[in-house]
Amino acid sequence: MTIQSKPILSVRDLEVTFGRGKKAVQAVAGISFDIYPGETLGLVGESGCGKSTTGRAIMQIEKPSGGHITLGDIDLISSAPKEARRLRTRLQMIFQDPISSLNPRRKVRDIVAEPLDYWKVVVGDERAAKVDDLLRKVGIDPTVFGHRYARQFSGGQCQRISIARALAMNPEVLICDEVVSALDVSVQAQILNLLEDLKAEYGLSLLFIAHDLAVVKNIADRVAVMYLGKIVEIGGSDNLYEAPHHPYTDLLLSAVVDIDPSKKHERKVLQGEPPSPSNPPSGCRFRTRCPFASELCASTEPELAEIAPGRFVACHFPLNFSK
Amino acid sequence: MNTPLLVVSDLHTTFETPRGLLPAVRGVSFSVAENQTVGIVGESGSGKTVLARTIMGLQPIRGVKLSGSVLLNGSEIVNRPHDELRHLWGSQVAMIFQDPMTSLNPVRKVGDQIAESLQVGIGLKRKEARARALELLVQVGIPSPEDRFHAYPSHLSGGMRQRVVIASALSCNPKLVLADEPTTGLDVTIQAQILDLLDKMKAERKMSTILVTHDLGVVATRTDHIYVMYAGRIVESLPTADLHSHHRHPYTAALLNSTPRIENKSHTRLTAIAGSPPNLLKPLTGCAFAARCSYASDVCRTQTPELRSDGGSSEFACFNPVGVTV
Predict the structure, then answer these.
(1) What is the pTM of this model?
(2) Do A196 and B267 count as a contact with CB atoms less than 8 A apart?
(3) Which CATH number fits domain A9-90+171-313: 3.40.50.620, 3.40.50.1460, 3.30.950.30, 3.40.50.300?
(4) Which end of chain A has fewer CB within 10 Å, C or N?
(5) Do A256 and B188 touch (CB under 8 A)?
(6) Domain ranges of chain A
(7) B217 with A263: Cβ contact below 8 A
(8) What is the value of ipTM here, to two decimals?
C-alpha cells in the first residue's frame, strides 16, 4: 500500500487475559497494528496464538485487559456501553462455521434484515428492497431463496448469507475469522473472490484472520504474523512472503505444501509445539523453538521495530537483512 | 510387477436412505502396489471417505448395498461379516481417522489403548503389550513417553493425539494403512511433522499407504500416484509428478486453478468452480461434472465417459480433455 492516510482502525498494546491469579492465561500479550481504509490486513499464526481472540477483542466480544482500540477518532474501550453498541455497527464480524452462525429456523430474508430491524434503519418496502439488494450482491437470488430457511443451504451459501448480514449496516471494517477454512477449495475460491469484489465496491477494510498462509497471501495487502500472543512480524504480503525477516515466519512458510512439487523449496522443519501461553518463555517467546536463539534472546524481549519501510519485525537477529 | 497388495474392482457402495438410494461410490477400480503411496483426492461428498471405509470393511451390513470386489493380499473384503474381518484389521490393514479426539477413547489412558490393540491384535501378554506400546510412543516421537503413557487423550494436543493414533494403527504391523484426512484440522507446522512421521514409518516398515484428503498440496508432495474423485467415481488417475502440468480432466484442472498458491502474487484472481456437486439421490445422465464444466458438449450430457488411457500411465474419464497427449 502506498496510500499512508489515517488508519481506520488502530490497535495499541492490546492485552486479553483469561482467568485470574495463578491460572491466568494471557492470550493476547500487548499487540499493536493499524488498518488503513480500503486495506486488507491478514493475521496468521498457529492455533492458540491469539489471532481469533484479537478479532473478538476488537468486536468487544472479549473484554480487553489493557490497551486501546480506536475506530476513526473514537476509543472503543473507554466509550460508554450504549455508545459502544452504536459504534460497533461500523465493525462487523464473520465467523468460521457458516452453518452454526445462522439460526436454522429463520428465513434468509429475516436473518439478513436483523441488524436493520434492531437499529430501525429502514422499514416496509425500503427494508425489503435493501435485503434483496444485499442478497443479490452476495450471489443469492432473493426471489428463489429469500423464503427458505438457513438449514436448507450448503456451507458456501450460508457463508454468503453471513456476509450479506454483515454488510447490512454498511460497516467500515469487516473482521473475517477463518471464514473459508471450513469450505471446499472450489467454494473457497468463490468466497475469496466475492470478498475481493465487495471490498472494492464498498471500500471496506478487512481484518482477515486465518491459518492458511496461501489464502492469506491471496487476499491481504499486508500480513501480520502472531506467535504466542505477540505479533512477531508485519509487512506487505508479497514482500513478507518473498523475504521473511522473522525466523518463525520463515519456518511457517517452509511448512506450506504447494500443488507443484517441482517448486519444492528447501524444507525446514519447525520442531515441537508452541509452549503454553500460561507460562511463556522469558525474553523472546519463540526462542525455545528458534534455530538462531542466543543468550540475548532469553534475557531481553525484542521489540517490534521497523527495520525497513513498512517492514516491522520483533527479532534480535532478523533474517534476509543487512544493516 | 508383482501382484498388487490391494485390488479394488468395480466397487459400488449404495446407502439406503429414507429419501431413496444414494450411490456414494459408483464403480471404482484401482490397485495399490507394495510399498506404494496412493492419494485419493476430492471435495466433500465425492465419496472418498466412503470408499476408504468400504475398503476397510467398516460399512454396516444393514442399510448399505455393496457390490464389486476388494482383494487385500488375496482375501476378499466386500460383504464379509465383521467377525471374519477382525483378524485382518490391525495386522493386514489399519485406518487413521481425521479426528483423533473421537478415534481415541476419552476415558482410557493412551498407553493402555495402544497396549489393548496389541493384546487383541497379536495376542501379546499384558506386560509385553505395555512395553511394546511404550516403544511405539517413542517411535512416533512423543516427548517424555513414560509420562504420556498414563495421559488421557484430552491432556494431549491435536498433533500429539494424532501421533498416538498412528502408534495404535501401526501397532500390529499392518501391510496397508488408510489415512483419512490425517492432518486436516492441524496447523501447517504440525501437519508437516505428522506427514514426515507417516513417511518415516512407511519407509521403515515397507507399508503401502492410501492417503485420502481434500488437500491437493498434501497429495502432490506425499504420494506416488493420485486418483481424483468426483461424485463417487474416479475421474482421473495419474502419477503424482504429472498432476501439475500433465493432467487431462477439466475437473482436475479446475481444482488446481481454484487453489490459492503461495507462489502467486497477492490478489491473484482465483478461478472458482461455479455451482455445486450433483445430488446423487437423483439419477445422473452423462458426465457428473458436465453441469459445472466449461468444456462440456452435448455428448457429455447424454453419455457417461469411461476411464481411458492416454497411452502412458494416466487415465481420464472425459470426452473433451484439456492439455495435449504427449
Answers:
(1) 0.90
(2) yes
(3) 3.40.50.300
(4) C
(5) yes
(6) 9-90+171-313, 102-170
(7) no
(8) 0.86
